[in-house]
Amino acid sequence: MTSSESIQAFQNSTSQAFFALYTDWYRQMKSQLRRLQLTHPQVQVLAALQDLALTEEEVTQVMVANKANIDPMTASAIITKLAREDFIDRFPGKKKQRTKALRINENGQKQLDQALAVLADFEKEYWKDQNPNRKELIQTVKNRL
What keywords are annotated for this sequence in UniProt (predicted)? Predict the structure, then answer.
């Protein structure tokens, strides 16, 4: 049977403090992106695609997944949804016809620009927020590092 000390140690651990702070941050950030009808992973994919397009002649799904630090199967589902919502274009690749190349379109670029502006404002506000609960979470994590 698990001891009370083990449970207390777990509840007071650095990882639990970090998890509480991350959960708060993620919940708040998700709320901000909901106004644009985007998720954080969708923004990651759009940003990775745009960044790769600046330097690569042709961008593939695998390249986007790697750049966004997302599992290729997850990236595939996100890319399919973004294409369906008319944020990106998919077309046959020049190097391999079986491979689909990707490009962010005008609609996707507008969404990405809005999302990046919203997230930049959110980041500034979140970390300077004077909410006592959030300040306590941040301080707890700092103290345990």
Answer: DNA-binding, Transcription, Transcription regulation
